[in-house]
Design brief:
heterodimer, A: alpha+beta, 5-stranded antiparallel beta sheet, 16 helices, 17 strands, B: 123 residues, alpha/beta, Rossmann fold, 5 strands
């Protein structure tokens, strides 16, 4: 790069100055050395010439030396001074020249700057023009209304959409205050001050505003819901106006209204439903909770939202995967807020929204239904039992009618036979023992046939009982008296273990005596070689489900009932196990042929059942059999 | 002096039975027996025979024993005549007809019948 001449001159002056300083220094050093030499010469001369002069005498006290030295100094000063003069002149020259050059350069720069400014302005105008030319089609084609405002809020630009939406011509809008023309009144009809206008706020505060709950007014005086954005325009930091973009959101508002109404209807339906309607997100967290759910589960909506759906289920159902239940209606156990479990019916469906899976559960508390079902089952079981009883009763009535008819028709011939046997017996010669024994067999056969018919009639007789509160021990004692002849004849030991002060029991005394006598006779027959007949009575409270003890009405007894127990033990041979299940069947007997009708225990069982009691026969471990009869105590349990 | 035989009227629809019972009773020599196998003729037979005791069946094809007994008891000449029913006593209906009056349950031995007759004649 070339240096300007002024700079070269400056450089030259500086070099000159340096040279001058070097020359002056050199001369000074030369002079000094020379002087020193002269001083030493002078000192030597002086010492030679003036031996009397003391050592160390200043040589400059010698006038010639002093004069000579002064001359040299003057020469040196002259040289240095001359150098400085030349330097000064050079500097002055350089400064003068530089000053002139700088002024010239400044002027040139200012001129260039002005040119640049002009070029920039031209470029900017060109650019703006180009932008406007390019933007105009865009603005004119935009579906949204676009208005440009000046800092005072007057419309400086409006695109065709703005005119179409407002009913004004573009030309009419230009220059008018935007707020006064389009935005002067609220939707409810109250006046809207410009100082409150969010669009003007963009002008005042320089902040963009977006509003979607106001109206713009058309030229014809009607309004339309609008969403607008007011954005301030800045130039070099100064707000020079605002751009307002707006669109008619009538349809959107109508859609929103329809959606709101639909949601409200849905919410009303959901809230008014007595079933629980619960929605959960993909993670199973509750997002919707209706009043039915609140009623059923006990959680308020705010307690339920965001919590896992699974906590509404009993622990043992929580692991069941919900996808396995989708689209199905299943019955589970629910868990209320306060811990109570209850039966519920769950219908689970899914739906998608914004690519997310949601679940909706409709849950019905089926406690009452289950109770009703249970009751229905019980009632059904009872009805079934009743029906069976009725069928049985009808059957027995039919059998009874048939038996009565047969009995009537059989008893008369039996009477004839018996009368005939009696007549013939009296006609026999005293020594005709064979004929007598034949007639005796016939007599026995008639009585046996009569006994069977009586048993059959007893079994089929209608169960009309004459119930009274009785002392069970007294009935037992009376029954034992009736078989005393038999027990004595069989040499049996009779043991009575009768608990005192038993509660009363409602019995048909005659029929229960028939039952007990029948059981005693069976026991006596089971001990032909003698033995012990033990009769035991006691009361007990039923504490567990067992033989014919349960909660159904069909069961004879319920937990908590007090029952009176009569046990009859014998020490006989017991009953073959394979016969135990048939022992109450009519015409079944373990006795030898001709010894029993097979109706005794059937009649016994029937009489006990008619009393609402139970009878059970089983073999004792010690040997023999035990008959256990239970009746519900009167007025207890 | 021999004791007069007691007059026993048998009213029963079964001739074999009345015959067999008559033979047994007559054999004892203590009774004069008449059989009547039509229940409806029971009252007429009683009026004619004037029995000391009547053995009356309960169920007969042409009449109920209870009705026949009521007719006999309604007759002023027969109202004190003891009546003993002969019955199988197998139905409530029969029990109703007997109405607590004395009866002999079929089949009964001759001895049982005679014991019963004597018991009521003694009254």
């Amino acid at each position: 790069m070339r240096k300007p001449k002024e700079n070269l001159l400056l450089d030259f002056s500086l070099i000159t100055l340096v040279i001058m300083i070097v020359v002056a220094t050199a001369i000074s050093a030369l002079v000094t050395a020379k002087l020193n030499q002269h001083v030493w010469v002078l000192k030597a001369y002086d010492a030679a010439m003036r031996p009397e002069a003391p050592k160390g005498t200043d040589p400059f006290s010698v006038p010639e030396i002093r004069e000579n030295f002064r001359g040299v100094l003057w020469m040196t000063y002259g040289a240095v001074g001359g150098g400085f003069v030349i330097l000064y002149i050079s500097l002055i020259s350089v400064v003068a020249r530089n000053s002139r050059t700088i002024n010239q350069q400044r002027a040139a720069l200012e001129a260039a700057n002005a040119d640049l400014r002009a070029a920039y302005e031209q470029l900017r105008e060109t650019q703006e023009r180009l932008v406007q030319e390019r933007m105009a089609p865009i603005l004119n084609s935009a579906g949204e209304g676009i208005c440009g405002l000046d800092p005072q809020g007057n419309i400086t630009f409006a695109n065709p959409a703005a005119a179409t939406l407002t009913g004004w011509d573009v030309e009419d809008l230009i220059g008018k205050p935007h707020h006064d023309v389009l935005h002067h009144t609220r939707a409810d009809g109250t006046l809207y001050g410009g100082d409150e206008c969010p669009i003007y706020a963009a002008l005042r505060e320089g902040a963009a505003r977006q509003v979607d709950n106001e109206v713009f007014w058309k030229k014809d005086g009607t309004s339309f819901p609008v969403e607008y954005i007011s954005t301030p325009m800045r130039k070099e930091g100064t707000i020079i106006g605002a751009v307002v973009t707006f669109e008619d959101i009538t349809q959107r508002k109508q859609a929103e209204k329809a959606l709101r109404e639909s949601e409200m209807r849905f919410r009303s339906v959901a809230q008014s439903a007595s079933d629980a309607i619960i929605s959960a997100d993909e993670r199973g967290l509750i997002i919707l909770w209706n009043r039915g759910a609140e009623t059923i589960f006990g959680y308020a909506e705010k307690e339920a939202l965001g919590t896992p759906l699974t906590r509404l289920l009993s622990e043992r159902y929580r692991s069941a995967h919900k996808t396995a239940m989708v689209g199905k209606t299943v019955e589970l156990e629910g868990l209320r807020k306060h811990g109570g479990e209850f039966p519920l019916e769950l219908s689970l469906g899914t739906w998608m929204a914004e690519d997310q899976l949601f679940y909706t559960a409709i849950i019905r508390d089926i406690t009452e239904r289950k109770q009703a079902e249970m009751k229905l089952k019980e009632t059904s079981a009872e009805l079934q039992a009743l029906q069976l009883q009725l069928i049985q009763a009808e059957k027995m009535e039919s059998v009874g009618t048939l038996a009565a008819g047969i009995a009537h028709e059989v008893k008369n011939p039996l009477s004839i036979v018996l009368m005939g046997v009696n007549y013939l017996s009296d006609q026999l010669p005293p020594d005709d023992d064979i004929t007598r024994s034949v007639l005796q067999d016939m007599d026995n056969a008639v009585r046996k046939a009569d006994s069977v018919i009586r048993g059959l009639l007893d079994f089929s007789a209608a169960g009309a009982l004459s119930l009274n509160a009785e002392d069970l021990n007294f009935v037992v004692q009376q029954s034992l008296l009736l078989v005393k002849h038999e027990t004595d004849r069989s040499h049996l030991r009779v043991v009575k273990e009768l608990t005192e002060n038993l509660p009363a029991v409602k019995l048909d005394k005659g029929k229960i005596e028939q039952v007990l006598v029948n059981i005693f006779i069976n026991a006596i027959h089971a001990m032909p070689g003698g033995g012990t007949l033990t009769v035991r009575t006691y009361a007990k409270r039923l504490m567990e489900v067992g033989h014919r003890v349960g909660s159904r009405k069909a069961d004879h007894f319920r937990i908590g009932d007090t029952v009176l127990v009569t046990e009859v033990d014998d020490t006989g041979t017991g009953i073959p196990p394979d016969k135990l299940t048939k022992i109450f069947d009519p015409f079944f007997t373990t006795k030898p042929t001709g010894k029993g009708t097979g109706l005794g225990l059937a009649v016994t069982s029937k009489i006990v059942a008619l009393h609402g009691g139970t009878i059970d026969i089983r073999n004792r471990e010690e040997g023999g059999a035990r008959v256990t009869i239970m009746f519900k105590a009167e007025g207890r349990g | 002096m021999t004791m007069a035989k007691k007059r026993i009227l048998l009213i029963d629809d079964e001739p074999s039975f009345t015959r067999m019972l008559r033979l047994n009773l007559e054999k004892t020599g203590a009774y004069e027996v008449r059989e009547e196998n039509r229940g409806a003729h029971g009252l007429a037979a009683a009026r004619e025979f004037k029995p000391d005791l009547i053995l009356l069946d309960v169920i007969m094809p042409d009449a109920d024993g209870g009705d026949v007994a009521a007719q006999i008891k309604a007759d002023k000449n027969l109202k004190d005549t003891p009546i003993v029913f002969l019955t199988a006593v197998v139905t409530k209906k029969e029990e109703g007809m007997i109405g607590g009056r004395p009866f002999i349950a079929k089949p009964a031995s001759v001895k049982e019948v005679i014991d019963c007759i004597e018991k009521h004649l003694a009254k």
